[in-house]
Amino acid sequence: MRVGTEGTYPPFTFHDKDGNLTGFDVEVTREVAKRLGLEIEFFETQWDAMFAGLNAKRFDVIANQVDLTNPERQQKYLLSEPYNFERSVVVTVAAADDLTALGEIKGKKSAQSINSSYYVLAKENGAEILPVEGMAPALELVKQKRADITLNGQLAILDYFKNQPNSGLKIAYKDETKIGSGFVFLKGNDDVVAEFNRTLNDMRQDGTLKALSVQWFGDDVTE
């Protein structure tokens, strides 16, 4: 089976220090293929050309943190069950109180990249925006207590915490609204999708999916 993936998107699909392709999505795909007795070959492709490659049948499936809630994708392709979920989170210094609702950020200084979806979410909930260029500067402002909070995606923040275990920051609020990511196939592959879904369910039940999540993110993002 031919698998389209970026290979430049850590911690999901990237090359390690020895040049080997790895990452959460890559290793989930390898485990599914192993259980199904499939030989797989990864085709590294830029994101902008990923769906064109699938449409042209240069590969059989995409494994690249594809958002399964996109209406156009739902209509045009066959989508697997999700193997992980993304949520919006609020990050604060470790000593700050946890939040019980997103509305509690009203009036707080929030460091956000202008025009990102998290900028919009923070603004809609009444935060005072401190504009920055990217996640790292936003987290730095929170560490320096020049900002009270920053909003971002759970997966990126968990990856940051895994690599910066002494950051002095924490997730103070996790939104319950979740967006699943999974495999994408061309229509007409119903039997293959069913086998992938069955295998993902087996991996969820026996703890393999959770173990891979903890390995890559330090937490379970599969539920």
UniProtKB/TrEMBL annotation:
Pfam families: SBP_bac_3. It comes from Chelonobacter oris. Keywords: Signal. It is found in: Cell envelope. Belongs to the bacterial solute-binding protein 3 family. Residues 2-220 form the Solute-binding protein family 3/N-terminal domain. This is Amino acid ABC transporter substrate-binding protein. GO terms for cellular component: cell envelope. The lineage of its organism: Bacteria, Pseudomonadati, Pseudomonadota, Gammaproteobacteria, Pasteurellales.
